[in-house]
Amino acid sequence: MDGANDGASKGACNCGGCGSDGNDKFLNPTPMLDELESGPWPSFVSGFKDMAERTKKPMLRGVLDQLEYSYNTKMGYWKGGLVTVDGYGAGVITRYSMIKDKFPEAAEFHTMRIQPAPGLHYNTDMLRELCDIWEKHGSGIITLHGQTGDIMLQGIEQDKVQECFDELNEKGWDLGGAGAGMRTGVSCIGPGRCENACYDNLKLHLKALKHFVGQVHRPEWNYKLKFKFSGCPNDCTNAIMRSDLAVIGTWKDAIQVDRDEVRSWIEERGIDALVNQVINHCPTKAISLNDGDMVIEARDCVRCMHCLNVMPKALSPGRERGISLLMGGKNTLKVGVNMGSLIVPFMKMESDEDIEEFLELIEEIIDWWDDAGLDHERIGETIERVGLKQFLEGIGREADINMVSRPRDNPYFKAKY
Ligand code: SF4
Ligand code: SF4
Questions:
Q1: What's the pLDDT score for residue 241?
Q2: What are phi and psi of 347, to 5 degrees?
Q3: Any ligand 1 atom below 6 A from CB of 235
Q4: Is the dihedral of CA 331, 337, 342, 343 positive or negative?
Q5: What's the 249 CA to ligand 1 centre distance in angstroms?
Q6: Whose CA is nearest to atom 4 of ligand 2?
Q7: How many CA atoms lie within 13 A of 261 on its CB side?
Q8: CA 21/CA 16 separation, integer angstroms
Q9: Ligand 1 mean position, distance from CA 95 (Å)
């Protein structure tokens, strides 16, 4: 590699292309990165530069220089390693520069994964404390929330990680999951603010986190396992697509209909709107008009949420509420992108006993996977490989006509592929 940086001329750029001596401004020229600022979207480059200029942290300048060099050479230069805090075996994602001689300011740029609060809501005091600690020890860059669900504190050197963690932990924060263990769980705001919530997903998230906290911090399985808790089939956490264990609120009986609100809706928008926006969009034709009145055939409803989303005041989930458990959702790996299969069609989730029963079931599922799974194999892949029959026998459950291998239609899926 040409132009190795001896670190003596602070700010001198070694990207090999811009020729700057770096002495005029804090940041070195980054013509390739600058082009990313001109598009219609908010640019991470602008944010990065702004932060670097304000904080004058050499680490940020070094990372921009290395990224510019990466764009020029079409190569990435980060490699992994192992950084932990006392008593933990996971939670810090390491990034060591492979070309630290060239860009010594970017020699290390590790990420600390921090557990989010259930529902991803915080008060401002908590966030201020988090920011102050992070600015003191790290780069100051935060991602809320990464695809993992964690608060991602990006950019810290190894020798500052323990002290930073101790201060965060003192304020009640903890590291999230990484490696072959229980990953950080995610839940939607649920009953905290949403009328569609069919169970207290915030409470279940917290209980599950406490139950599996050892496996979050000390990975011990074949591979990773991730919970997501959505309060209703709208699945705002993307659980079915992006988690091994998707816990989705649902109901067993009929959708609740407020007749007065249905009449108001029709008076305001007209009967054609009811037909075109609601009835014709029901995927199973469960809704019909009877003498100008809206009728829903409960046994045909597949809980796609469409009608409830269009008529939120008039329609709400039924009274007999609980959860469905779908398993095996994941992004690309050995057997391609999977959505979860519906393994437990309905389970009540009202009392502490219900939660205990749920956690026992998850323990059984994990025990089976730990025995039957191969190294680096997600649970959905294990089930795909050995077959659903063997999986159900392994966890001692009977096959049920209500189990389905893939979710049924839901127009509110956020499809990426
Ligand atoms: Fe509300 Fe359902 Fe979305 Fe949760 S998943 S925020 S309960 S609509
Ligand atoms: Fe039809 Fe979906 Fe409404 Fe059920 S929730 S009645 S399937 S539109």
A1: 85
A2: -150, 130
A3: yes
A4: negative
A5: 9
A6: 301
A7: 11
A8: 11
A9: 35
CA 243 – ligand 1 centroid, Å: 16
348 SS3 class: coil
Structure tokens at 339: 């959505």
Q: Residue 23 corresponds to which tokens in the numbers above? A: 């002495």
Position 412 scores a pLDDT of: 44
Could you say which ligand is closest to the alpha carbon of residue 186?
Answer: 1
Q: How many Å apart are CA 50 and CA 401, to the nearest integer?
A: 57
Residue in 149, 130, 151, 137 with CA at minimum distance from that of residue 55: 137
Q: What is the mean pLDDT of residues 79-102?
A: 95
Cβ count near 145 (within 10 Å): 16
Give tens-digit pLDDT for 222-242: 999 999 999 999 999 989 888
**pLDDT for position 329:** 82
pLDDT band at residue 180 using 50, 70 and 90 as cut-offs: very high
Please report the atom of ligand 1 found closest to the CA of residue 194.
Answer: 1
Is the distance from CB of 107 to CB of 96 less than 8 angstroms?
A: yes
| pLDDT higher than threshold 60 for residue 22 | no
Predicted confidence at residue 404, as pLDDT, reads 77
Q: Are 41 and 53 in contact (CB under 8 A)?
A: no
Q: What is the DSSP letter of 338?
A: B
Main-chain phi, psi angles of 181, to 5 degrees: -150, -165
Domains in the chain, please, with CATH?
A: 8-77 (no CATH), 79-170 (3.30.70.2500), 186-252+321-395 (3.30.413.10), 256-316 (3.30.70.20)
Whole-prediction pTM: 0.88
pLDDT tens digit sequence for 301-348? 999 999 999 999 999 999 999 999 999 887 766 666 778 888 999 999
Query: Is residue 411 predicted with pLDDT exceeding 90?
Result: no
Side-chain-side CA neighbours of residue 102 (13 Å): 19
Q: Which ligand is nearest to the CA of 233?
A: 1
